[in-house]
Specification:
Blueprint (H helix, E strand, L loop, with lengths): L9 E2 L2 H18 L7 E10 L1 E11 L2 E9 L9 E9 L9
Antiparallel strand pairs: 1-2, 2-3, 3-4, 4-5
């Protein structure tokens, strides 16, 4: 695994769903709204000093949000952090680095 490179898109897993759920409250606070649906669809990962995850999340109807979740190195013992997000996405929008 190359440090810094973003890996190919993969189908969402139980782990990515759990990570998204952990940062959902952070996103809802930033967007000042609640998401009744919050289902991960696919993701990409990037090795940094920890791991970045770019996750496509279905949030209801035809609306999707791309979130960037950072997982620190295990010895740092920090919670997952929402490092960024993009709204107004569709099912067909490609996950890209942001």
């Amino acid at each position: 695994m190359m440090c810094g490179g973003v890996l190919a898109t993969q189908p969402a897993t139980a782990e990515t769903q759990q990570m998204a759920e952990e940062v959902k409250a952070q996103l809802e606070k930033k967007e000042n709204r609640k998401f009744p649906v919050f289902k991960t669809v696919e993701f990409k990962s990037q090795v940094v000093a920890g791991m970045n995850y770019f996750i496509k999340v279905h949030v209801g109807e035809e609306e999707f949000i791309h979130i960037q979740v950072f997982r620190s190195l295990p010895h740092e013992n920090k919670p997952l952090a929402l490092h960024g997000y993009q709204t107004n996405k569709t099912k067909n929008d490609e996950l890209v680095y942001f």
